[in-house]
Amino acid sequence: MTGDEIRKKFLQYFSDRGHTIVSSCSLVPQNDPTLMFTNAGMVQFKDVFLGDEKRNYNRAVSVQKCVRAGGKHNDLEMVGRTARHHTFFEMLGNFSFGDYFKKEAIEFGWKFLTDVIGLPRDRLYISVYKDDDEAFNLWVDEIKMPRERIYKLGEKDNFWAMGPTGPCGPCSEIFIDQGATVGCQQPSCEVGCDCDRFLEIWNLVFMQYDRNEAGELSPLPNPCIDTGMGLERLAAVVQGRTTNYDTDLMMSIIREAAHITGKEYGKHDDVNVSLRVLTDHARAAVFIINDGVIPSNEGRGYVLRKIIRRALRHGKLLGQKGSFFHRVTHKVIDDFKQAYPELNNNTDFIQKVVLNEEESFGNTLHFGTQRLEEILQKVRKEKLTAIPGDEIFKLYDTYGFPTDLVEETAKDAGLTLDMEGYTQAMNEQKTKAMASWKSSGEKEVASFYKEF
Prior knowledge:
Blueprint: H1 3-15, E1 20-21, H2 46-50, E2 59-67, E3 69-70, E4 73-74, E5 88-97, H3 102-116, E6 124-129, H4 133-141, E7 150-153, H5 155-158, E8 159-161, E9 166-177, E10 198-211, E11 217-230, H6 231-238, H7 248-261, H8 269-290, H9 299-317, H10 325-336, H11 342-381, E12 386-387, H12 389-399, H13 403-412, E13 416-417, H14 419-436, H15 442-451
Parallel strand pairs: 1-2, 6-7, 12-13
Antiparallel strand pairs: 2-5, 3-4, 5-11, 6-9, 8-9, 9-10, 10-11
Helix pairs in contact: 7-8, 7-10, 8-9, 8-10, 8-11, 9-11, 10-11, 12-14
């Protein structure tokens, strides 16, 4: 079963059960300055959950574009090195706004996974919030789940909140056992272990309380359902892959990146990491640019620039000297234009933005290298043993010069890096960026850029 087939089956399944199919919202959250990017399916329904907006439906289903590469959710440095970290991913979700609640949500989820997708019942496990006896009993009585396959976990794992105050509630997660040869391979491994053996597939959130400033919970007048399931993760399970990158959602892009760079995927870990980075970052860049963000030195544009330049850095590690990344993004557009037809209208614009950033990064390496040499001369003159952290950050912030390149150069010169000072400078920049992207007007800039 392909990733596209899973998308379609999910939407059709819930549409048949009275849910309105709602298109993915933009990756740029509307009227929510607390978010860098849309990072979950519930984001576009936040005001509905809060009771501030009414819609003409009380059941919804969506496949939401998500990015986690800035602010609280920042998976950037882990991308390519693990089986499941991504900057861009798609989240499948079904929602109820004061309509059905726990019983139906649990039944819908279970039947979709077992009857439609065909996952084996005896490999599925459940977690519930430790005090949620209602959910526990529903799994036992309605689904006939053996008690020993249901785990009661604490607030950290199984209680969701929109913020310090406001709507919140317990959640129930569905896991699949990938087998004793996957993960930590310890006899004590069970649901809740950090390894990949018991892999979380779907999170069902039962939004039933309102938390006040004193931390007290009171029942919501209209309890809601918010669920989320990563498409890439489900595709990996269905297709028998231990990494999301080996699913059909990504492999064709990996093959294209391998062809462009003249490398082979699957033989060397360092090459695998770089090809995965190119694939993930190309997906993220395409969809972020498509939603009106362009590379810049602040806010969302700053995150986009980091994503593209990290990809270009990995291209350099694979021996690429000229522009190449725009060709990888073109493959992303080809693969996704059926599911997201709007990509057809923006193909030239996306390619133009990426190519422009590639050429700009070439200048970055040129001028950054010159500036780094000046810093090295100063360090030698002052007889320091480490390159100052603020200088490292200036190289990164002003020129976009990769820190790992600074580290390699420093090592050749017998020096170390003052990473504590670098982190301090980075945190100061993040504070400034958080303030600026609340009103950065990137959509307007993108409109001008497109005309230009």
